[in-house]
Fold this sequence. Notes:
This protein is an alpha/beta fold. It has eleven helices and 17 strands. The chain has a single domain, classed as TIM Barrel (Alpha-Beta Barrel). Helix 8 packs parallel to helix 9 (298-306). The model is unreliable at 1-38 (pLDDT under 50).
Amino acid sequence: MRKGAGRFAAYSGLLLSSFLIVVLACTVVAAQGPGPRAGVPSIIDTHNHLFGRFPAGPGRVVVDYEGAAQVALETMDKLGIKTLIVMPPPFAPSHPHPYDAEDLLDVVRSRPDRFAFLAGGGSLNPMLHQAARDGNAGPDVRRLFEQRALEILSKGALGFGEMTAEHFSLGPNHPYESVPPDHPLFLLLADIAARHDVPVDIHMEAVPEEMPLPHRLSSPPNPRILRPNIVAFERLLAHNRNAKIIWAHAGWDNTGRRTAKLSAELLGRHPNLYLSLKVGRDSGPENRPVERERGIMPEWLDLMRAFPDRFLIGSDQFYLSPRAPQRFPRHPEATTGILTWLPPDLAHKVAYENARRLFKLRD
C-alpha cells in the first residue's frame, strides 16, 4: 500500500502541476469595436476537475470532494462563474486510484444550480486505451464499454469526458497516452453520445503530420516521433454528425500546430465540432490567442466571429481539497484577456449561451 500511495502522490502532483490554473473571465466591449471594458456576464465554465481523493500516509486515502467544491465555489463567486462543469481527467489504465462519476455525485446533487458533471475519464478512457494496447475491440469489449457509458448517463452526467486521443507526459510518472481518434471504441462512444444527445469532451494534441517531439518534452515516455492524428480526428467527426465533439484546450498548444487556420478548416468542414478555450502560461508561444500586451490575436478574433456558436470556456482548473498536501497557485489573470476584447454579443455566447444550449442547462 505504501508503494501505491507513493505512486498516486507522484502522479497526482505532476498531473496537477502540468496544467496551470486558468479561469477564463469574460468582459464586454463598447459598440464601436474591440477594447477592454468593465462588466462581466455570467460564465459557464465547461472543463474543470475536482481533486478530493488523495493519499494521507501509508495505506490511507482521504476523500474530501466537499472541500474541493468549497474551494471551487470561492473562485466561482469571485469571477462570476454561474455553473462549473467538472469531470475526471483522462486516467491511464495503470493509475492506482482513478475517480469517476460516482465520486462527483454528492457535490453535484447538493448544488445542482452551481455544478454539473461529465464522466468517463476514470473508466471509459482506461477501457479505451487498454483495448488499443491489447488490439481488442471485439464484441465483449464493446458491450462492456457501452454498458459503462450508459451507466454514466443514468447517474446524471451531461456527457462524456475527459477522454484523450493524444496526451503528453509532462514529467516522471505522468503517463503518455495515445490512441487513434477513430478507434472503434471512440466511434462507438460517438454513436452513444449522438443517440442520447450529449457531447464528448476530448483532449488531443494537434499533430497534422508526422513530426518530431517538441524539444521541451522528454522521450521516453513520450515517443521521439509523433504520429499524425488530424485525419483520424476528422473521421471521428464525420462518423456521426449528430455526435457533438468538444476539442478541449484551444489556445493551450503543445505542438505548435494547433493554429487558428487549422481550427477554421476543421470548424468549416465539421458542424458538430466545438472548441473550449484554455490559455495557460505553460502553453507554447506559437498559437496563444492572447498576448498580455497586445490583447487578442486578430486571427483568433476573426475565427470566433466566423464561428460564434462553437466556442466555449473550458479553463481546465484543478480544485483541490484544503486537506490535500499539494498546493498550486492560481493565475486567472493569465487568461481573462481572451474574452475581454470581444463585442458584447459574442462575449455572451462564448461565456454562457453556447454552453447553456450544448449541455441543455437551465437559466
